[in-house]
Design a protein that fits this description.
The protein is α/β, with parallel strands linked by helices and about 400 residues long. The chain has 13 helices and 17 strands.
Length: about 400
């Protein structure tokens, strides 16, 4: 396989997680009667541009289909993050009723609703019919399209040249990342800006976040890799912020070559930090595989011990990262009875691979389990606050990554 970014031959492995079904391919009861497609889940590192990437096995069209089950608006933490982002962008870039904002991968309108509330013309580009429908129900203008250069040219011809282009947690999800970035160069106004948010590779490595590796994530990004990708496609990084979201993310600000924004010193500072950490050396990537094995063994040990003691363990959050963890560890419903999730789009379905049933959160109070394993560990604080009732019968919360903790 050749690198998606620079086309160099990939030789350096990061990790081999065996096989797994796509992490967002939740099953209906009827689908339990049929076999699932399990695909190799291997991640490689490009030693030329240092873009970390999964090997190709499924197309984006098959992964992000009409029944896509991830809806952003079911996390209060993420909604607050989106609203704060809109406030900040309006202030920083003087956005007004004369401005145009386009969000790529707008999901269910979790962010654009706050743009529209300010009277700013906005458009969402979202390929999944399920989330696009939810966004339209909020009165938003949504185009069901995969974004790329041709899509951008089409939107440009329709008058959607953007003052602000937003791309939260989508840069990692595109197989042709160069075509995707060319679309931003096309659609941005000459003085327009774009922001990308994505989990930071440095945090993935430092916190052993191997469960964030799955087929829908084609790339795992550092500023080093993103800066080169942008330069190759007519964009310049002019600012970067480190965020706590998703276990540690970056917000990267870009503009077209020749744009008005001055490049902030923090860009060079973060690039230097990545270099000092060793990101541009093969040895840096050797630690993740043994860490994943350690986490797997610790989780299995806990679940087996709880089973032997007659304790009931359930999960909270039918998250894609949880599916990677459970399938890698071989956990099934005998060890994790069910997983509760706030999204009605997942309730009544089953986790891919493990086939563990997904129930409404109210089931926690009904069955009063001894332990609740929080699968989306980045939302642990939110989950514990929302499910504080678990403490009333002596129940405890558990997280598995980066190490097993009983809270």
């Amino acid at each position: 396989m050749n690198c998606r970014g620079c086309a160099a031959l990939l030789r350096l492995p990061l990790i081999d997680l065996g096989t797994a079904p796509p992490s967002n391919a939740y099953l209906t009861a009827a689908q339990l009667e049929h076999a699932e497609q399990w695909l190799p889940l291997r991640v490689m590192v490009c030693e030329q541009c240092w873009l970390v990437q999964t090997q190709d096995y499924r197309s984006a069209v098959s992964l992000f289909d009409a029944d896509y089950a991830y809806f952003s608006s079911y996390s209060s933490t993420w909604l607050a993050h989106a609203e704060a982002y809109v406030v900040r962008m309006v202030e920083r870039f003087a956005l007004s009723s004369q401005s145009r904002v386009v969000e790529v991968a707008s999901n269910d309108g979790y962010l654009l609703q706050y743009v529209a509330q300010r009277g700013i013309a906005c458009l969402g580009v979202e390929p999944t019919a399920s989330t696009a429908q939810a966004a339209r129900a909020k009165g938003l203008d949504i185009r069901e399209l995969f974004f790329g250069e041709s899509t951008a040219c089409q939107l440009l011809a329709e008058g959607w040249a953007a003052d602000l282009l937003v791309a939260n947690n989508v840069l990692a999800h595109v197989p042709d990342i160069n075509d995707f970035l060319k679309g931003f160069t096309c659609l941005l106004k000459s003085a327009g800006v774009a922001t990308f948010e994505f989990p930071h590779l440095l945090q993935l490595m430092a916190q052993s976040q191997f469960d964030t590796l799955y087929h829908e994530h084609y790339s795992y990004l550092s500023l080093t890799a993103v800066q080169e990708l942008c330069a190759r496609n007519g964009l310049v990084v002019f600012d970067v912020e480190q965020l706590p979201t998703h276990g540690g993310s970056l917000r990267v600000y870009v503009q077209r070559v020749g744009g008005m924004q001055v490049v902030a010193p923090c860009v060079a500072e973060l690039l230097a930090l990545e270099a000092r950490t060793g990101l541009c050396s093969a040895a840096y990537y050797a630690s993740l595989a043994p860490a994943a094995e350690r986490i797997k063994h610790a989780l299995l040990g806990f679940l087996l011990q709880a089973k032997a003691a007659g304790k009931k363990v359930v999960g909270y959050g039918a998250a894609a990262k949880g599916n990677t963890l459970l399938n890698y560890a071989g956990v099934r419903a005998d060890l994790l009875a069910w997983v509760a999730d706030a999204s009605p789009h997942k309730q009544g379905k089953y986790l891919p691979g493990s086939r563990i049933p997904i129930v409404a959160p109210e089931q926690i109070c009904v069955e009063q389990p001894d332990y609740v394993l929080v699968l989306p560990w980045n939302l642990t604080t939110e989950v514990i606050q929302q499910q504080a009732v678990v403490r009333q019968w002596g129940g405890r919360f558990v997280v598995a990554v980066p190490e097993l903790r009983v809270l």
